[in-house]
């Protein structure tokens, strides 16, 4: 689920030790791929949450939508999980004009479907009653346990490594930290939907303003 994230972490360590520079274009492509990975994971998680309360419409839709996001990554590099595209010094695959257009079209379609699938949850009082005040984790206990990621942000903790310790393209194009305050199942699902919106916006901006240069130094 985190092939791209782990590969970038490894490459950034190697690049730092070797003082290797990565072009802004390669950093932007890495960021696009990271956010596509986030989109796939969040869509899958929202579907899994729906499945946990026996609500199959959203669960089924999100399983397919997760595949749609993964297929966009496959379009870029030939592998749906982004394996082998990240390497020290940059990336192995570029994004040309034709591919950029297709990515945006697929991204818009998948995002529209994600919003519709999530709205099936938000508009269903029976489902919301199973989410709200269920599995609540308070902010103080969250901090004591060292919770991170969407689970922490769902407890109202404004903590995101992309914002607090930015590297790569995130030093130049930051994504707002998405939080909600209730710390329950609803909050964990809702924060993921907020992050999906921000990731889609980020990818669009990066594609529309993709800098020139080499993809590998």
Task: Briefly summarize what is shown.
The chain has 217 residues and is mostly helical. The chain is 65% helix and 2% strand. It starts with a helix and ends in a 9-residue tail after the last helix.
Jot down its keywords.
mainly alpha, single chain, 9 helices, 65% helix, 217 residues, two-stranded antiparallel sheet
Structure description:
This protein has 217 residues and is mainly α. The chain is built from nine helices and two strands; from the N terminus they run αααββαααααα. It has helices spanning 3-18, 24-52, 56-77, 97-122, 125-131, 139-145, 149-153, 161-164, 185-208; strands at 86-87, 90-91. Strands 1-2 form a two-stranded antiparallel ribbon. Strand 1 (86-87) and strand 2 (90-91) form a beta hairpin. Helix 1 (3-18) packs antiparallel against helix 2. The protein is globular.
């Amino acid at each position: 689920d985190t092939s791209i994230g782990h590969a970038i972490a490894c490459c950034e360590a190697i690049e730092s030790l070797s003082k290797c520079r990565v072009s802004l274009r390669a950093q932007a492509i890495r960021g696009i791929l990271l956010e596509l990975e986030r989109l796939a994971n969040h869509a899958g998680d929202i579907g899994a949450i729906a499945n946990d309360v026996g609500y199959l419409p959203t669960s089924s839709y999100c399983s397919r939508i997760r595949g749609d996001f993964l297929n966009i990554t496959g379009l870029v590099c030939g592998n749906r999980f982004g394996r082998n595209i990240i390497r020290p010094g940059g990336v192995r695959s570029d994004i040309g004009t034709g591919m950029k257009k297709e990515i945006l079209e697929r991204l818009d379609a998948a995002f529209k479907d994600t919003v519709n699938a999530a709205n099936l949850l938000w508009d269903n009082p029976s489902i919301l009653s199973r989410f709200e005040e269920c599995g609540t984790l308070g902010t103080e206990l969250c901090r004591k346990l060292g919770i991170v990621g969407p689970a922490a942000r769902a407890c109202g903790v404004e903590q995101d490594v992309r914002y607090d310790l930015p590297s790569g393209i995130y030093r130049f194009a930051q994504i707002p930290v998405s939080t909600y305050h209730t710390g329950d199942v609803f909050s964990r699902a809702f924060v993921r939907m907020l992050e999906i919106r921000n990731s889609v916006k980020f990818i669009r901006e990066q594609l529309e303003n993709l800098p020139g240069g080499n993809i590998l130094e």
